[in-house]
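Why predict the complex rather than its parts? Because the way molecules touch one another can change local conformation, and only a joint prediction can capture that. The input here totals 1089 residues.
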Amino acid sequence: MEHIAPWFLLLPLSLVTAAAILAALAGRSAFLGRLGIDRLSLILAAFPLAAFIILAAYVPALNRNEVFSWRIAWLPSLGLSLGFYLDSLAALFALIVTLIGVLVIVYGGQYFKGDESAYRFQTYLLLFMTSMLGLVLAGDVLTLFVFWEGTSILSYLLVAYKYKDEAARQGAFRALFITGGGGIALLAGLLFVGHVAGGMDFATILSSGDVLRASELYPVMLGLVAFGAFTKSAQFPAHIWLPGAMSAPTPASAYLHSATMVKAGIYLMARMNPALGFTESWFWLLTSVGLVTMLAGAYLGLKQNDLKALLAYSTISQLGILMMLIGQDIEEAFKALVIGVLAHALYKSALFLVVGIVDHETGTRDIRRLGGLWRAMPFTFAVAVIAALSMAGLPPLFGFLAKETLLAAAVHPTLPPLVASLLPWAAVVAGALMLAQSGLLIYETFLGRPKDASRRGHEAPHLMWLMPAIPALLSVGITLLPGPKDEAAFLAGAAAAAFGGKVKVSLALWHGINVPLLLSAAAISLGAVLFYFRGPVRAIQWRVLPRLGFNALYQAVLAAIFRGARLATRVQGGRLRLYLETMIVAAIVLVLVFTGGRLLPDLSLARLPAMDFFGATQMLRLFALLVAVGAALASLLLPRDFGAILALSTSGLSMALLFALEPAPDVALVQIVVDILATVILVLALTRLPRGQRAAAQRLALSELRSRRPLSLIRDLVVAGLIGLVVASLTYTALTSRPLRDSVITPYYEANAKTQAEATDVVGAIVVDFRQLDTVIEIVVFSAAGLGAYMLLRPAALRAGERGGRGRRAVVNGSPVTKGIAGAETSAFVRLPALATLPIAMLIAATHMIYGHQQPGDGFTAGVIIALAVALWYVVFGYEETRRRLPWLRGFRLIGMGVIIVFVVGAITYALTGFFFAHVNFGEMIGLPLPYGFDFSSSFLFEVAICLTVLGSAALIINTLGHPDDTDEETDAQSIVEA
Amino acid sequence: MELLTALTVGLLFAIGIFQMLRRNIIRSTIGLIILANAVNLFLLSTGAYDGTVAAYTTTTGQRSDALPQALVLTAIVISMGGTAFVLSMLYIISSRYETADMDDVQGLKH
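Output of the joint prediction:
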């Protein structure tokens, strides 16, 4: 094993994942579908079986105290990595997970035989197996947490598998609610642990136990981690989710809720014991919670009528025992822990599977209706007896050994006096109750007279009863296996990993007459008495303390959450403007809080412009600022929407002037074309609104401004004024405190624009070379906006396409006077210049793309300019004819082409230089004879790509907004027809 | 100049917000565009160099800061895309609620 590569650790996990994928594909593929779920399950089971064998192959090396780990950097900047770690403790759990997994998959194939939809179940189960395996093999706490959450979610899917059943959904939700809540606490706790220990991986954490225990955060860490483990492992009072989760199909219950998932909390605590354990608080917390859980589970189990519920409560009891054992600080406890984990996994999964068979063959799990089944189901009966005797803790079964070691741990002298006197008797009582339950299960189901003649049943298929037979026989034979020394050494290794020191484990059943044996005898006798008087005892149980009330608590918590949610939604008045206003006020308050109310900045820093009337630039700038504000104000005050749009356009253009005076010619150019395009689409949108609505909105705008009760107007004014003041003062502070002439980035760009990007235009170089990725994202966002607009309006567009196809074209063709947008008539005098515009626009666009690196202008401008020409066509020729005349204008295709060019060019430059999106001059490389100033380079191609995407997206927007569907007469007519 | 720029940005912002709070949905869209203009103006004026010549490697003298210009270039195009998207949403609103009045849009009401 020494020569095994570390990544070999990934094999078990990959195998199980592959099986999950295969199961998922089976639902889709005809070939695998014809196989039938039972035969397919045999194939699927081979994968976890292989994983089991691989893991078992590690055992000899693990017995020599070797550990295996593998890790890969995940987010190195945050110190996160994905890692796996295999020692004896992890291997013990991993072997259980894979072995029981094999059995459950095969069994599930029989259980769901003939149900084709069961592929879904097997997929979930295998995915769960992946998560569980990942959880126990995790090499650091974050990997562990990811898989931990995976088990919670898949448990939800499995419990709610019969999703049409209300009870199944509620049970699943309850389990998710409780374990999910625990998961959040666990994450916080693990982060604390990782922070204090100085690393997230187990090697670091386990070796820094002293630091962790000495930390003042210790109580917080302990509380959070323990809370997560307690909820997962169904400790009192979080145990209530486990009985509810019994509405899962039985294979899932056998796997998740006895052998694996509920052990996750046990595993975590055992794993963390060397780091967090051996303190007073650890001892008291785990011992008390474990003790109460043990007794409550054992007590509640006895009164159940549903076989699965009975098993669920006995599982809770067992989990309590295990949790309690981890709390101790003696060797014997950890010996008892590993033996208990293994014994319980074996007998409890066998019992669950047996109950599944009974349920499957008779249709009920209620012990009041079963009985006398041993004749009909001899094999199942035999398996059940062996497993139940193990659960009862009777010799010579493995369960006996588990109980013996537990009792040995319970009578240890180092315990505090109170616990020392209480613990053995509590263990005896729990043992007795457990024995009585085992008896109840066997007697009421298989022996006695049949209570319901319709529930006779018959033997299950061999494969089905063989699956529980394997763990049942193992629990007999584990003490008789050929090499008990090896098994004992392996368990000793696992116990040592949890204990943090050497542990001796012997699997011999007979240790001579000692205190544990006497206690065991006491437990057996008391259990026998309880079983004999089971009728009266159960009757008393039902009458006294009918329910412990924790379900009511859970319901109350849930109801409180829902009430809170309803209350929160009642605040929602539905007025969007009020939401906006609330947000703005909140922003103002936040700024005031964080600036300490010192809103007005230091005005002495102001450098007023020299009132130099000959300095034309300054005066022009003043003028532009005034126009920008004035036009914006006009857009507010002008009564007609159309006028307001024009005023807005004016304000935008004066922005362009401001930008030009900066001087920022590239920005100014883009601002001009974008402003025009924005105006066009605004007008288009305006024409799309039905005339009635438009007029109403118009009147509204007027009446709002001239309202007699201007209360809301004043409120809006105050809010707008305040936010304006805040923004102005923030801007002022930002501008006066900026580091003038002290930039690191800009000089770098200026110095390298020529050499690295062959550009004289630094802005252009930044956009298409230095920060090219930004630009890529930007054009993708812009495309998304165009596609989004198209998708939103597509239903209308499609409707129009169907109708528009018939009537309209006849009018358009060959007519000297055509209908432009909104049905307006356009004459030849308008059409001719419009025709010429598009080629000219394309020419301008081409120069922008070619010379964008040396002169103002770039791909955006180019794209928008062509889009503007197209918009003019829409106005002049109308929708149909534009579409007919410009068949190449397909938004999707243009966007697609642009994006493809970007990435193809990126890939080529990567291949050539090793840098994605590097600047490469292809023309120079292959010696193309190009005119002066025209570089056939990656930058040029990139500009073309930008142009294509922008044009495509803009075309989509104009297309959808400029659609003839909603010219007034049509919509009005339509709405009348519909009404 | 900082004071004037700050005042302009603040005024444009206030006007934009006030417009956005109108019931007429066309006016709210106009408000959104004014808001975008204000933000772009702010971004552009944060440059570390108050230049007198454009940012070309061939020019001499104090160049204006190229970095915020490149950022604003992107911002302008994106805000136009945003505006177009908002407009198509407004159209959907107007056809679903059959109104151009913000206060009649009550889909979020409990």
